[in-house]
Amino acid sequence: MKKQKSSSFVELVFSIAETVLVILALCILMGVVLDRSRVGVVAEDFGSVSPLAQLMNYSAYILGIFLGLSQYKRILKFAFKDIFLWVFIATTVLSSIWSENPILTIGRSTALFGVTILGTYLASRYSLTRLFQILCLSLGIVAISSLFFTWFSPSEAIVNDFGRSSWRWQGVLAHPTHFGRIMALSTVSWLLCLLSVQQYRIFSCGMILLSVILTFLSHAVSGYISILFVVALMTVLLTSRGRYRNLVLITWAVIIPSIVLGLLINHNLVLTSFNRDITLTGRIPLWIGVFEMIFQQPWFGYGYGAFWTGNGPSTIVWLIAGWKAAHAHNAILDIWLQVGLIGLVSFLLSLFRNIFKAIVELNRSNKLESLLPITFLVCLITINLVDSGLTAGNILWALYVFLSTYLSKQTITTVTARQMQIKKV
């Protein structure tokens, strides 16, 4: 009896410690910065020349690999079901052979591998609901701590964007754009929490309100777009169930294109409202320069994480764009730049596979939980329409890998259940 109690206590302690470590890793992967003295030079993938920031980042990567090794049998069972994802990972590592900066590529591809292992571990270890709860808690910690940090140190939490003549919040993160997309992710997560969890609804409403406000204070277009698309998607999915499903779908098929057409017709007014110009704040000339560089090395790219270094090809893009961009401001273009068409195709095949499986999961179950995969995938995609970072070693990639592995697990579970039914018959 005593041995059983002792064993239960050890399991409880391990579970709590594991949860704390996962929350810590997720917060680090969101880009939390403790060393504010050099925050101005933090890179788009949350890397930094600050030794403390580098130590935090690589501790999260190492933790992911360590946790993965501790459950390697369980991970191997599901890890390679999305073979296209692992082809993409292999391409990032192999790109060090032809990279503009081989050492940088090796370091960043290793970091990406560590985050991939962490995402796979989370999917093999936690249920979708449990991981969703941990994610909400992590996002809530970042949002609330950013609010307090801004109160006590506004000069470091709010930065002046001279290009847009506006003050932008970055909270405890390294850049307002990072902060905006994380707060958009927080908005979506807490909105799903409000719909799926009966308890703590007042707290969930408070977190949604706080996340939305912080998203708008960051002035990050990717955050605005993500919230808009996800809310529209969730409205369609929630109202299209039941007796009048076809009627509702037809109605939304008319409403959504009408809204898009209205935005296109009044694009000048919309852009002015968000402090943007007709070039999308320099993005269009940037994309023109990016395409020129892509067509010079379309098949293999310039090496994972090695293009935007300020040397070689990136300087040509900067001259064309007229400003020094830290990334392509579009995930697809960034992947193409870094690992060429081979890496891009493998990633897109993985993405389409997971979208298809998420739709199958949505149709298979009437539970609200079935909304989570497709909703989060749409959120990740829309965040990266005018910004990059999905395939960097950060929270977005960890979440994508988790969803991919989870959907693979659900497919295996469904197939097994069908086989058992056939045997019974």
Automatic annotation (TrEMBL):
Subcellular location: Membrane
Membrane topology, from the record: Multi-pass membrane protein
Regions that span the bilayer: 12-32, 52-71, 83-99, 105-124, 131-152, 172-193, 223-240, 247-266, 302-323, 335-356, 368-386, 392-408
Pfam families, per database record: Wzy_C
MF terms in GO: ligase activity
Xref: InterPro entries: O-antigen_ligase-rel_domated, WaaL-like
KW Ribonucleoprotein (keyword) present: no
Domain of life from the UniProt record: Bacteria
All residue ranges annotated as the O-antigen ligase-related domain in the record: 207-348
Principal location class: membrane
GO CC, any one term: membrane
Keywords noted in UniProt: Ligase, Membrane, Transmembrane, Transmembrane helix
Name of the protein in question: O-antigen ligase family protein
Organismal lineage: Bacteria, Bacillati, Cyanobacteriota, Cyanophyceae, Nostocales
